[in-house]
User: What shape does this take?
Amino acid sequence: MNTTRRKLVIANWKMHLNTSQASLLLHRLHERIKIHRDIEVVLAPSMLVLQPLSMQIDRRKFRLAAQNAFYKDEGAFTGEVSFTMLRDLVHYVIIGHSERRIHFHESYEEIAQKVAAAVRNGITPVLCVGETQEERHNGETKQVLHDQITTALSHLTAAEVEQVVIAYEPVWAISTFGGELAKPDDIQRQFEFIRHQIAELYTKKASKAVRVLYGGSVDDQLAGGYLQIPGCDGVLVGSASLNYHKFSGIIDAAYRVQNSAKE
Ligand code: 13P
Assistant: This one.
């Protein structure tokens, strides 16, 4: 189903690594990772580290993502960085991560504004969706995904939706929120539901084009299995992306899965 879409591996470094630590990790990854045309490797460091890393990065191997940005292009918004400021620096911006929804109370409307601002500035949004443990136990997973997707994409046209990346990250599976391992069958069901939503709201073309990732306790041992789930276009990696052995193992797994799909 997804053999034409390149596998996407995103390292979300969250609020870890200062400039020299990030530079060292990039250096080690650079030595270890080959140029793979069939997979895309994206690093999402802290805002502070984006600029220095962009000078060091080999663009044949890596792309950059921001972990957040503010939706106004410019103005009196102390402490914020806009998508406009990031447009020459990053290809992607992570939007609506559960840590931002939970710790920083980002609302559905704010997330929708951020998705629209990313697209307006030529940056690909990586929209994170996923239910909490409580919502899962209450049988609300589909409703939550439906609400998160419909609101977040509400300012986009079908053609714009085709460019979006959606990361399904059940909150209960994130290592720092519990780290329970999600079952591949369940993930596949949610992937199908996400694509079904896009087809219903927009077009079949958009639902086929949109890239859907999985995130939540992905490491080098589990990555291959997750990447083989039908409809899985890649992984969004948190803690394992801070360890270069583990992260390069994940990239190797993506490469193997992508190559076996082509055969
Ligand atoms: P972990 O891989 O540490 O579970 O984090 C997942 C995540 O939140 C990536 O955005």
